[in-house]
Amino acid sequence: xxxxxxxxxxxxxxxxxxxxxxxxxxxxxxxxxxxxxxxxxxxxxxxxxxxxxxxxxxxxxxxxxxxxxxxxxxxxxxxxxxxxxxxxxxxxxxxxxxxxxxxxxxxxxxxxxxxxxxxxxxxxxxxxxxxxxxxxxxxxxxxxxxxxxxxxxxxxxxxxxxxxxxxxxxxxxxxxxxxxxxxxxxxxxxxxxxxxxxxxxx
Length: 202
What we know:
mainly alpha; 3-methyladenine DNA Glycosylase II, Chain A, domain 3; Alpha-Beta Plaits; two-stranded antiparallel sheet
């Protein structure tokens, strides 16, 4: 479904104000889908716990509507945190890697995993899939070494961190799309080979 140019601009503007944690607490599958829902009046402006009241005020100002308190049905606002893997308990199942929306977890099957703290958005999506409960949330480093300056907010991700998380999320989405396309192509090729084999037997 195509999006009108003016609506696409509004979606981009709303998305830029969201924290890019991709935590799905808002009930949508990421920050951009939530931005699209706000722009089309399918969601309210106060469904993002990581953004908190400050994020709600920013979106309200953009849209020219009154601000409102966070809807706690979607969760409570908390200071930023990062995931930490208790390495001696990790069994290398890779389920946390698959769950991370920004590719902030390194590891391979049956090998110990570790979280890149400077890239973790604190979405907590890696916790539930872990079969041995070896992931906990901790306070983030005082300064993100991959950024040129320390975070400017103490209650939510800084603009630089959000922009970086957005880039990593979009890169991951592109990679997943490519992997799915390649998988479909292999399946189609295998199907054609099977049909050709069956046809040759007739």
